[in-house]
């Protein structure tokens, strides 16, 4: 087992305080959006401690197929979609052939891998995920009484369902309304709210987003999307092809180790609206909460599919012998509360406090947690974190 030092990402939507506080350190006044726990080339963890100190984790683990992130959103971030395997391979190959530098702002496909992910809330965590049903969209467009939303409603009545909604999104993104028109739609939402009208928080969400991105077409697109609120300890699966945008809060994300994101709205980064529309998948239009399974008496296991699973284990002084973690292959670990010791089958021990990260492999075997705290563990259900080549 190893204790890790993990890189952070300072995107403009991040929080000044949340991640520094989680890691028990003073912030520097700049927003910190993410902590990357894993071996992605754009953000590889390094090893702490007497053995392999300062070396990249890849020297011990190889390139892992999983990544675990801590994410803190202080404001809405981009409307986005992640590609599936075929799209990621094709997009990466095309940009490589075109000679687009891997760190170029306009680069979309940073690697040839898909990016399904699961979010696990550490605080109240709000997102937009998937499209609302046609009838619900029509109900919420009509009270706004603006030419933009009236036209959207008319078009959707003539072409209902997923295909019709995608057509609306395509039209909005490729030929967006003016900033003034978006502002007028926002005023329509404000008027409806003042009259006591809101439909599943659609208008309140649009106003919230408009405060950060006035005039952005993403404000209008948000009206078409479900608002999802996760309470601490709840999780949702975001498969490849599902449109989403995180709004606020702190979470863990477990995902295939990829940084492929197609964005269109609510961002200062490069956008690819046509690419986003092409990656939308009909089967991924619904919100997919993940119901945990109980392992032992102290562990919730969230396993949405074959790509990855997340276990969250509570330990206390009431368990003097320790609590056994599930899984026995390669694992990425984050202490999400308190202070714990992890002991492997060879009786080797590492200590983690809130915000610390670790790595374990098959040689560590069964791991016990001792102390008063909480540990999250990302792993593959088949017993290994996997190599990236397995995903091609």
From TrEMBL:
Residues given in the record as Zn(2+) binding sites: 80, 82, 117, 244
Keyword flag Isomerase: yes
Keyword Transit peptide assigned: no
Named cofactor requirement(s): Zn(2+)
Cofactor note: Binds 1 zinc ion per subunit.
Enzymatic class: isomerase
Listed Pfam families: PMI_typeI_cat
Molecular function terms from GO: mannose-6-phosphate isomerase activity; zinc ion binding
Record-annotated Phosphomannose isomerase type I catalytic domain positions: 2-133
Biological process, per Gene Ontology: carbohydrate metabolic process; GDP-mannose biosynthetic process
Active-site residues annotated for this sequence: 263
Annotated InterPro entries: Man6P_Isoase-1, Mannose-6-P_Isomerase, PMI_typeI_cat, RmlC-like_jellyroll, RmlC_Cupin_sf
EC number(s) given by UniProt: 5.3.1.8
Family statement drawn from the similarity comment of this UniProt entry: Belongs to the mannose-6-phosphate isomerase type 1 family.
Name of the protein in its database record: mannose-6-phosphate isomerase
Gene that this polypeptide is encoded by: manA
